[in-house]
Every structure is written in structure tokens, then in C-alpha cells.
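A common beginner's mistake is to predict each chain separately and then try to dock the pieces by hand. The better habit, illustrated here, is to supply every component at once so that their relative placement is modeled jointly.
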Amino acid sequence: MEFLDLTIRQLHNELIKKTITPLELVKEALLRAKADNNNAFEYIMEKEALDMAAKLKEPEVDNPFWGIPFIIKDNFSTKDIPTTASSNILNGYVPVFDATVVKKLLDVKAIPIGKSTLDELAMGGSGTTGHLGTTFNPYDKQHQHIIGGSSCGSAASVAASIVPFALGSDTGDSVRKPASYAGLVGFKPTWGRISRLGLFPFATSLDHVGYFSRSVYDAALLLNLLAGRDPQDATSSEAPVEDYTRYLNTELKGAKIAIIKEIVDSIYDKSINSAFQKTIASLKYRGVKVEYVSVERKLLEALFPTYVVISCAEATSNNANLDGIKFGPYFDGKTYDEAMMKARTKGFSELIKRRFVIGSFCLMRENQEVLFLRAQKVRRMVVDKINEIFKDYDAIFLPASPTPAPKLGEASDRLSDEYLIADNHMVIGNFGGFPSITIPLGFKGNLPFGGSLTAKTFNEAKLLHIAKAIEDITGFHNLSVRTAKL
Amino acid sequence: MNFEAVIGLEIHVEMKTRSKMFSAAPVEFGLEPNTLVSINDIAFPGTMPTVNKQAVINAIRVANALHMKIDDTLVFDRKNYFYSDLPKGYQITQDKRPIGSEGYLNIKTDATRRIAIQRLHIEEDTCKQLHFNEYTLLDYNRSGVPLIEIVSKPDIRTGEEAAKYVETIRSIVIYADVSDGKMEEGSLRCDVNISLRPIGVSKLGTKVEIKNLNSIANIQKAIDFEARRQEALLLSGVPIIQETRRFDEASKETVTMRVKSDAVDYKYFTEPNIAPIKLSDSFIADAISSCPELASAKEERYLTIHGLGEREANIILQNKDLASYYDEAALSTKNYRSLANWVTGEVVAYLNKRDIPIENFFVSPAQLALLVNMIESKEISNKQGRDIFQEMLTNSSTVKEAKDKLNISTQINDDAVILNYVNEVLNAFPESIKDYKEGKDRALGFLVGQVMKKSQGKVNPGLTSKYLLEELKKR
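With all components supplied together, the output reads:
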């Protein structure tokens, strides 16, 4: 097996044994990156990565990230490396500071080899709206299926084994949905567990730093490193950082898992339902209690509209700093308002402008009460209901998506319960800031799909424990295009 | 028809904290443009706000000085709009829950009036714009500086009241060590809202806003002019246009700046990057109790305990550093009136003549107190005191060094000793006694001089005269 096809943990062992060096690893990763035909990259950090790797001589035995190459979604601020958020309004923008999570990874000598594509400004779920065009799903060499988004490039590069892990961001499922379409472990912890300093904000109260890996253990390792209070992020939690790997080698006994009936009932795909039920049976066999719970349909149907209102409103405000005056390309204009208008007209795609119109509309004085504030109240109702479930259950388990990766251009009926409920339920994890993870569950033909686990806030260790159990059940440890038996 | 002016003031105070309101970036004034810009100040993507604790403490102190209710939960909102001086495209401010509410200030013109203060809130400053004909320049050094905004109710009625109100607030923020309060530098800004209505009517007239006032004097002049302008219009039946005006110093008139459009919708919503912060009772109490003493408290002490006159007290309080100097000196003396005389007289005269601030004044408060004590205990005379003072300044010496250098030995005040000298002199100059009895008043002066000569100038001249007169009566 080639080294880049390994997980972080496995690769670390090889690096310690010196069967491979960081420089060799990075060279191979760069080769694979340049050979990538899925349009996963905004920028390949060839010189920077080689320079960093060349300096690493003595492996650090207790540092699992030493010499490990990785990829960063292009909405994380990276010092001296162009960062565009896949939007033309930031073409050529070079930040002067690193995001906290980037800094943490650099400090442990992990090696970033590139910035990956995303749906423009992280606003999207198809992986088709970035300014460089569609990012494809490596599982479909015909390029007919999407990989989802908004963290499309990060998902594609980890699924294609270019690197063992990649940073992403999750505002409405933007790590966990593409993880399902790409057969990956996609994880976001509790809101505030990982610092957002340096993450270009989409919707502040929903944004999370997340990441892709190919094993649950790797996800736990990353959380150990990235979690923690950041004095520059006032929303980051002061709760102590635990050892999130501590349950991963222990038996899962006495856990209680809930399944929301109305969500499962909205999923019609036979492969997915079958894999899901098989997994449940296996869990029960291992002594896990699995029960159905009910959540009012009305509440579930309100998930998507609530998300649209809150995310568009916050996004409109968060992106008001992009005005073509202070940084980024200058779009010309003789007065300040002309310069702003031109920048924001030419720099943003139509889809982005549409979201800003919706966001502004929801925040208008005469509309705020019935739109923005009401959406916040519905959000509170959803969170309360989910917390009620968590009083009696350790986690909620559901299919991560109603289908495997859809085809490009496939329209979905926005008002069907398949779309409203089944396609958007993972936003629950953003509403309440609940830690949530997608793990591979099965295949339909050549396309993978995943399962979604969500737990109460700050219960990451328990969540990862259950996720590991499912990983053991399915056997999809270190799944990639290169290791999948297709 | 008699009109009354209905005036409300909005004051912005720039706080002189060490760092910005929502970041740890340093604050410094007067630097070259754009030499102190941090990532937050220019709103690079991915930057986040953190709350400046000292700024919150400052706001609590000012709100307390204005007798306001302090909200124990700190909540911030976004005020969203696009403008070239607003880097984020929104300002972090307090809309729904200002830290201070429902306060007042008593101001004294010919009568004492209470001006109600609606709110006091914390926000961040925009960057500075310098407009020229062909272009506008942006300086981001100022972006993010902490501000306090104080909004009064429209209780003010005249330009003079407005001036007093602003002066009082200025004094509070300067003494509380919150701001430099310099209108000419922009660290204190005042916008005026003024409308007129017939006396006795409760409905408000059309409001005109006056901005860009750069001195307290101009605030008063602008208001006086605007009141007259509006009155003239109303009396001729011309309606007032709702607009923003500025004060033109040259013509001493208000001039249209822009006609006010309908109120802008700022789409306020709670700042999601800053969770509401609970301010404990002890935090608020400590903020208040640790506030440096305000002018009003000093004035109270000067008038009632030190027994100073209003005039002297006002002179001392005009300048915070002068008041500090006086206060420190007052720790070493109880001769307050004399001390005040010296401070408002000799000291101020010297400072003015040399155009130096009191921080650079050579004579320390303790030394001045020492000098005052020596004079008041009659150890030396007033004149000797002034001589010593000048000597100290000229040669940078202490009181003792100057006294020795000038050979001013301790004045003799002992009754027995003086009486002795007096009798000696009288015995030596019987003709002078005769002259004095014959009505030649100059004889007294001669005799005093002889006593001075005999004692090498050390006797207290006043006591000498007194005893001479007594003895002359006897002889």
C-alpha cells in the first residue's frame, strides 16, 4: 500500500520507523495533487510544502502529526498563501495571518500542501458554485455525480488519498454531507470547541471548524490537537480539552441510541435503508439499545426554512467587509459607493447575491420579527426538543443523506419531505452546536453513502466511541477510492 | 407667539484605553496615518471581536457619574450599513441594552435644571476620513477605538445650557481618566438635535441635526443661531426642513450639509461573536469605587472642608493636573486658603508665563506645602516666601536650600524677645518718642527700622509695630 493511502495513525508509525520521510511523502502528495482531475484545488503550495518538509529530520514519537501532509479549505486564512473562498471578490487576496487551527497544525509540523475548492464563500451544498467551477466526486470517473459541499475540494482530496486529512467548515452540513457522498469520516465538534479565528465567517452562530479523515481514530486525534480555548475567539469554550481517543479501544456497552422516525420515514432509497437497518441490528447485537423516537413533522419541515433565514441573514452581515476597497481586487469606481457596487456586483455570483437579498430582507426592521427573530425561536424549539431526546439517549443515529451523491444538474423537489427533512436534517447539529459525525455506511453501486451520529454538546468522546463501533461493524476503516473494493 | 427651543445632545467620547474596543490592538493618537493598523482594524476576513475590559469599566464609571442604572448584562449588537469609513460593513454597538440608562445631570445657569439622560452605550469608532475635492483619504489608525455615546433627552432649552452640559460631561470623562475630552482633536464630539415649538405645546416640532461642531463655544453659538433661524421661519409660516446642518465659523451661521432622508434601517441584530456577559455586582462596584475622584467631589471638598471660594476652586478645577497638584500639596498642609492662593496665583502665573504644563513644574506639591506652612506659622514673611519661591525656580533648589542661600533666617516671633528689642530701641532714641508724641508718624517707621536693624531683619515686623505702639503709650 502506498503511504498516502494510510490513515494518520498508520502513517505516523511509518514515519517513526523511518520507512518514509516527510519530504518523500510531500513529493508524492504534490504529484497526486497536480494529477488531480476533480478540480479540488485553488492553490497548490508546492514550494512552501517542500521547504517545510525538507526541514523535518528527526521524527517526534509522541507527535502524531509530525510530517503529515494535509489540505486546507480555501476559506481559512493562511499567512502569505492566497485565500479566495472560491470567490472572485477575493482573487489575489493574500492574508497576513494564519487561522488558529492552521497555526496549531503548523506548530506540530504537519505540512499543508494546498488550499482546496469550496462552494463560493462556503454558501452551498453541491460543490458546483466555486469560481473555478464544479469539483467532482473521485468515485465517479465519468464526472456525472457531485461530491456535495461546501467543503468539496477537501472531501475530494481525502477520498482520492492525496492526503490523509483535510480541514473543512460546517455551517449546515458542509463537512458531513460531502463526507457521506465521498465515503469519508466527516466530523464537526461542539460549537466553540475549536477556535474559529481565521475561518471566513458564513453564518457565525452556525459555523463550525470541521475536517475529513479516513478513520474515526484520526478524527479523535485531530480533536485532541485542535480543541481548546482561544483568547482571540470569544466564543471558544474554556472547557478543558479531554483525551478524545480514550474510549476508542473499549467495549461499547449500555449505550442508548435514538432514531428519529419521521426522518428515516422520509428516506426511500433501498440501499441506504438496508445498510442502515443492518447497522442497527449489529449495534443491538453488541448490547446497544436502539429505539425510535418521534419529532413533530412540522418542526422537521421547518428546519430548512429556519436555516435559510438565519444563515442568509448572518451571511449578509458577515460578508459586508468585502467591498473592493480595503483588500482584494479593485473593481474600479470614482466614489466609494461606486467602488463597492462594482466590486459586489462583479465579485459575487448570482447565487451569493440571491442569499444576500434574502438575508437583508429577513433583517429589515419591518420583517425581522416574523422572519429572523421567529426563525431564532424555531431554532430554540428544535434545540430544546433534541436536548430532550439526549436526556434519555447518548446519540441520535440517522442516514446522513437520503441518496448517494446526486447527479449534476439533478433538481430536487424543494418541497418534498425527502428534500426538506431527509436532505437537511443534519442542520440540527448546527442549530444546537451539537457534535456530529458522518461515517461511511455502505455503497450503492460505486457510490458510497454515510450514517450520521449526533450527541449532546461537549460529549465528543462518547460520540466518537459510538462512531468507532459503527466503523468496526461496517469495516469501512480507511476507505478511499484507492482502497474501496469496487 | 413665543417659542421654546427643544434641544437634545448626542455626545461621543473617545476612550484613551491602551487597546481597541474589540481587539488587543494598541491605541495611540497622533501617529502617521495607517501606521497602527491591526488585522481587526481593517476587517480582514476571519477576524473576530473580543471585549476590552477597561473600556467596560470606564463606561460604568461615567454612567455612574451620570446617575444612571447600570445593566448587569453586557450585550452587543451589529449596526449594519455600508460606508467607506466602516471596515466591517457594520459597527459593533449596543442597541437594545445600553450599559447605562435613565440618568441625569444637574446643570446650573441662572437656575439649576435637571437634564435627563436617556442612554449611555459602548461602541467602536470608524476610521478617519479626510475629504478633498478630488479624493478622500482613509486613516485606519482610529478604526475600532472605544467610544462611549451619551444621549440626552430633549430637556435642554438654550445654547448656554447645552454648553454647561457638555462642559460637565467633559469634566467627568477627563477626571475619570476615561478620555482627553478634546473637542478640537475629536476625542469628544457633540451632535445637536434642535426643534422649536410654541410654549405650552407638547408636540415636538421638526428636528434639525447639527454636526461637526469642534468647540463648546461653537455649540452654544450654533444653537443660538439655529433657534433664531427656526423662529424666523416659523413666524413667517415657512415649515422647517428636516435636515443636517453644520456650523460655519466664519459667518457664525448654521449651513445645510445634507437633507435628511428617511431614517436608515440598520438591521440591528445581536452580535453572534460575543455571548452576553454577566457583570457581577462586585465587578460593577469595583469599577465605580476605583474611579478617580471627579471634579464635583473635589469641589465639594474645596468649598466645604477647605473653605475655598468658588472662584479659586473653579480655577484649580479647570485643569485636572492642577487639581491633582493642589490635592497632593493639601496632604501636607492645612492652610488651604493660603495654598489655593499660591496655586492659583504664583504657580499659575509662572506656568502661563513659561507656557509649560504643571507636570513640568519644578516645585513639588510637598515643597510648596512646606513653603506655605512656613509663611502661615510666621516663620518667614510673605515677601520672604515669594523670594524663596523665585529662588527655587531660578536655581532648581529646595525650600531649605533657597532659604539658606538668601540668608533668610527664621523670623523672630517671640514676644519677650521682641519686647526686649523694642525697649532697647526706645531707650536709645528718646527724641523719636518725643517726635511720635508730637504727631510725627514717621517716627514709628524709624523705630521699627531700628528694631529690624538691631535684630538683623529677623523680627516679625507686624509684632514689632504692635509692641512699639503699646510701649509708646506707656512712656
